[in-house]
Predict the 3D structure of the following.
Amino acid sequence: MALYRSRGSGVGNMTAVFGLLAGAIVFSGFRVVTSRNVMHSALYLVGALGGTAALFVMLSAEFVAWVLVLVYIGAVIVLFLFGVMITRAPMGREASLDNEKRGFAAATAGLLFLMLSGSSLYAFKDVELQGLGETVSTADLGISLLGRFVLPFEIVSFLLLAALIGGIVLARKDLTPAQEEEGGAV
């Protein structure tokens, strides 16, 4: 049957899928930091996080992939977009938010990447993985996370919600209808 392939024939396909996903993630990550529109940056971040979730699915870590989708894409990005829209932050190109030191920042980030990559390769060059360890079921993981840490988790979520509401109250100015029409026409 065509569905059953030998173990070695799927490696090239998985490598190609990994290459496509890695390319999409790198492109999306690059556009997150180079896009001049805040909303476009947030949408590129969704693409980068979605690609990362797909990589976790390839690694048979479905639980981690779904947590990434639900928590980061489903909550954090939506919260970010909600905060941007509700505070009337500028969504287009804003010249005052840019400066002339982009090249220096890019060179510094590239140098830091090379230093961290080189030190990681040097530190772990002779290390071989002996085994993957004991597998843990998703049920056990959920019980250990939500059994002991459910109260701190709920407290942090309440504090984040209060911080968002406080930020909206502080940042938002109530405009008269005439001022809103004038601002909408600009």
Helices lie at 10-34, 38-58, 62-86, 102-123, 138-148, 150-171, 177-185.
